[in-house]
What does this fold into?
Amino acid sequence: MSDALIWRGYTQAELDRQYNSRGTVPDVSLYLNDYAARTSQAKTQLRCIDNLRYGDQADKLLDIYPASQSNAPVMVYLHGGDWRTLSKEDSGFAAPAFVARGAMLVVLDFTLVPHTTLPAMGEQVRKALLWLHKNVASYGGDPQRIHIAGHSSGANLVGQLLLTAPAGQIKSAVFISGLGDLEPVRLSFRNEKLHLTPEVAAQVSLLKHQPGRICPMLVAVGQNETEDYRRQSRDVADHWRAQGNACELFELPGRHHFDAVLEWADPKSALFRANCALMGL
It folds into this structure.
């Protein structure tokens, strides 16, 4: 392997290590299976209105976990999975925590790579947000209080939504274990599957744009994630503040890339409490 420096002083081998989130845990399937098991349990414990269609394609589906009262604030969660895996069936694990606090949780399916591109994926979740804005009141949600959260590649989708959503549509955002700049991803081994060009990487990178004042944000990253994931989280928080938005950074002790999102779903955690405060709960 060449010793040439590829990105911020990293060789190709080191850059690949920095952006290989699955390589940071012995067995990633333990955590992916846990997401699915927690979601299945949530569907057993709570009311779930599943497989609502927000578009014409077969995978344009969402599940709603309603709050017990009407006109509830709405949390929309965008799953991770390297833009290539996972679904809403792995994504309802936060429903018990949010529903207990009086919020509705919505989880989405959307087309994944290689059957789409990252900008098209962002456009698809934008359409889901518009559908919710028009229809969520029918299921007990307040369309004027829509909040978004995303983990890993889902955090990139959060960034895309913040760059393009109509003014005032998103009330707050949570960016968990995500990347604000996809240029190092393009330069890493991951681009064998993603096929990013420099132009597309910049188009979907929050750090490459100055959207101005949009909404408050929470940024969270595990202290056991790689150095560049942690740096990017700090950069996202700094960039968001520089746009005139309130932003709080949570560096989560003992957490890694795959369990940091579980802290967001933990009603005892400071991250969850901060999210509830942004939602007025």
Notes: The longest helix spans residues 118-135. The CA atoms of residues 156 and 178 lie 6 Å apart.
